[in-house]
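WARN no homologs supplied; continuing
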Amino acid sequence: MFAIARRVPAYRPKTLLATPAARRPSGHSAHAERQSRRSSLPTVVPRMTSKSTDNMLSWSQQLLGPWLRDWVQWRESTGQCLSLPPASGKQISAQPDPQETVHHDPMQPFHAQWAEDRKSVINVDPVKRHHPPTDSDSTLALPWKTVNVPPSLLRRLCELDYEDGTTQTSFWDIGNMRPAGKSNPLDTNDWALGKIRQTRRPGNGRFTNVATGPYGERYSKYLYVIDDRGMHIVREMSKCDVSSRGVPLHSLVCTRGVVGGEMFFDTNDPGKVFINFGSARYPVASAEQAVKVAEFVLSVGYHTVVAMIPQRDFRQGEYRLGDRYGNEVQNVVFRIGDEQGRYPALCVI
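OK structure emitted
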């Protein structure tokens, strides 16, 4: 007879003999058991070496750029130090990367130029300012042209109004508004000369309490700028601490304007003025534009305007110093005539 072989079970560790369902408390699922095993494993934290720190620093500097350096400099200036983990023992340097663009204050050159110009300011003589000299180095030639302006044209200027905020291509029939050119931004300020500035619109009447004197005498000179509000004047020989030259500038009279120049008030005739167009900030563009400026001054309330308009064509060159000062300066006389162009006027504005 054959012997029956007895089957011996394979060896299993005791920890594996019990089924998972037998080992876990009732109410726990297999997913919860796996999560419990994972949480019980020790957490391995990689140690940050010097090489890995250098890589992180290089990456962050490339990503953040100048902002990171500025922030580090601010931290160091306030007594705070930005350090990396102790494994490297390094600190972020506040020195800029020579390969990156160094950022400078864009206004720094203008501040330096303003300070340099202040070393040669114009000194105002208080005696001459209160008693301007009665002679001048400039002489006027006989006018090469006389223009009689009809009152209807002046009345039309009095009816113009630009206070509604609408966009205009031409103001007072002269030209468009523009910012002050050839000027240091630190020498542009609409409010710097508010206490000594006078403003008139067509029909407002003449300027008051002005110094009178011969054409070309500096202590009798006024700067003028025309903008959408009218004509503004300021006596040039006035002390001005906000100016790089120590005296008012056209860019301090107005930061935006149409045209500018210089004005003198006649000593013997309060209704007569002399004007030129010597403003580098708001230069005149043509002889036609200069004519419109003279008509504007008549509309304010004056009956005679002597304008330093040369007989040459303005296209031959810009308005120069010789066009307004020197011996035998060429000029045009503008007067209020009647509607037929006759003088004296038979009607008023």
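Residues 122-336 form one domain.
OK
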